[in-house]
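Notes taken during the Thursday session

The instructor put the following on the board and asked us to keep it in front of us for the whole hour. The protein is t-SNARE coiled-coil homology domain-containing protein. We were told not to look anything up and to reason only from what is written here. First, the residues (248 in total):
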Amino acid sequence: MSLTPSGVQLIVERHRQDLQSSSFSSASDPHLQAITLRRIQNDLPHLLRALNANKGSKQYESAYAQLNSLTETVDEQSYKVQKAVEQRNAQRQVKVPQQSESVGQSTSDLGKNDNPEEDYMSLRKRLLADGTSTSLDDQNKSADQMNEYHETFQEDIMKDLSGLASALKSSASAFSSKVTEDTKVLNETSENMMKSSSLMATVGSNLNGYLNEKSGGKISLFFLIKMMVAIMIIFFIALILINFLPKM
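Then, after some discussion, the predicted structure tokens were revealed:
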């Protein structure tokens, strides 16, 4: 079942909310925002095809404007996120040698120290000092939140589509019942017209039979023409008399 312009508007609005939520929740990590943008970019062609299939709808113009605005926003955000990803990768490439040096130094200190538990605790504190574990935990939490949000979003879409399907089904059933009633009325009208036609034919045949019986077949077309001519002659004579008698 193809999407209607109202359904396209709903999905566009949800994608816009996804962009806003991803921009706030993943401000420290642009990779998640890049995933969201990639998912929306994959949906845009499908939405455009579904919208073009309903060009005759009244909501086509508004839905197309919203979809075009979303496309421009996605392109702009994609450019920004790509730059942010490049900067993040560059920063990580700079941090990796420093972390390796600190880890090497920590392991060397651990080999020199006589108490391994204290060395382990100091090494753990050093590794956690740069915030790597904390950012990873935040990424996992944000990824879980995004997954939960998308699951709820898909469930809402399925509910909306099922409601739309049930509404269309009920509308189709009502329309079918109306068509059935109209068909019955047309059939009854056709039967009545056939009865009237047969009745008129019967009346016409009866009149012709009555005329033939009473006139004995003497009344013909030629007789009717002669009677019409005679009536017209009498009419003109009456007019002449009416005009000349007052003068006399």
